[in-house]
Amino acid sequence: MLVVPALAGLTFLVLPLAGLLIRAPWATLPQRLAEPHVLEALRLSLVTATVATALCLLLGVPLAWLLARAEFPGQRLVRALVTVPLVLPPVVGGVALLLVLGRRGLVGQWLEASFGITLPFTTAGVILAEAFVAMPFLVISVEGALRGADQRFEEAAATLGASRWTVFRRVTLPMVMPGVVAGAVLCWARALGEFGATITFAGNFPGTTRTMPLAVYLALETEPEAAIVLSLVLLAVSVVILASLRDRWVSAP
Amino acid sequence: MTLDARLVVTRTAFTLDIALQVAPGEVVALLGPNGAGKTTALRALAGLARMSGGEISLGGRPLHTLPAESRPIGMVFQDYLLFPHLSALDNVAFGPRCQGVPKAEARRTAAGLLDRVGLAGRAAAKPRQLSGGQAQRVALARALAVQPELLLLDEPLAALDAHTRLEIRSQLRRHLSDFDGATVLVTHDPLDAMVLADRLIVIEHGAIVQQGAPAEVARHPRTDYVARLVGLNLYRGVADGTQVKVGEVLLHTSAHLDGPAFVAFPPAAVALYRTRPDGSPRNLWQARIEGIERHGDNVRVHLDGPITAFADITPAALADLDLTPGQQIWASVKATETHAYPA
To answer: What is d(CA B106, CA A156) in angstroms, rounded to the nearest whole number?
Structure first.
């Protein structure tokens, strides 16, 4: 009874990907990949996703530590808030970013007046949009790893004279490193595929804010084969990430 | 640096309140049943358990006001807690590094300590590649590497198998006698305590019930727990000359005492008879056999009656007497084999 819908589900998931492979213009693939606007979008995507991941690590790991280790009033609320971007439609995230960091935004206005910094419709804006959407993946993964780590190792480090910062840097962090890496990879993949928040907050300017997903969407209207090629690149990246994390996912309870 | 401490830790339905002094070079064992508060006391000394009262001073300096990382302590944990991502060498070098020693020098110190515990060849091994005995020695080296004034050991031998334990115990004893600071170790194994410690402190229900040199504690147990540990039958009664009245039974002893007293005798001193023996030894009572079990090469008979007692007899004697649980029997012990002392 369950086999038929199960197979239908599998087909539903796999068929579109197969279609992508079948319709790919394999003969012209190399020169299409070498086209300047493709390379430009690819480079921009890789750079912004990587910088966004670095930003998420910088802010997300301490946040995860706070959620996992500290006790403070409203902790449950904070934890819920952190995961909001997971379920929020990315376009809404983009609108929200625009309202706060846009040129007329609450913080954006002040940033421009005080420092002359404008974020929307810049590469920095792309990075912020990606980080906003991707950070929960990192925080959740790292927080889980921190909760799973045996805190007695931290006590042992303290008896050896390690300050809290040293304990975190030399004991806690190395012990939760698999969780940090997994979180960072997921975060990076999510940032790489970001579309809604990016196009809303950062726009679609070639060279500065037109990342791969945006380029795919644009190419679909003018040059469908180019869209397929770009999609293939993103698919390949996804498969590589999946393969690198497979052990972790399979062994997860 | 003499350790002088009164430790008060309050938990729900449990209060630990003990005072202890440990001289430099002295090894004191906290001995007690599970849940007595031994480990809590050690954690309070280390600064890992919050004290609700009392104070700790080491060489006259207050310790209880300092966080764990600022106390001049070294601690060996029950399951060692070696950092899994660091090699044995870097585990040992961790403490000196935290004290600001340059990396190369810290590693040299660590290599020297690993050599001292006989593990120079295992410096590069990760903790998961070490055997239990090796991990224990690395943990000891790591604790000594910070040059502590107070060494704390939590069940240092409990995680080892019987064979390794014997070897590590004698090595640990040597290292502890080389250490010139104060040492507090926690154990529930009387043998570990006897071999390793200069003085025993027995803790039950969060309070000290007895303390003294190992031989003294072994000879003069003051609670049922201690008596069981050292393998003696123990009774509390009232002495009048060479007699001690325990409940309804009058035990004759070789000592002259007056007032509240303990009487102790080993299970091997108890003789069993199917019928009332002739010549009437002076300590004779009728008992019921509660149970019979193997005990080393001998058989341990649990006796109920006016006084409960253990009697150790040979398997041959068991066969001769044809004993079964529930049977009535005569038990006796010679006055010269008993040991009486004031309560």
So the answer is: 18
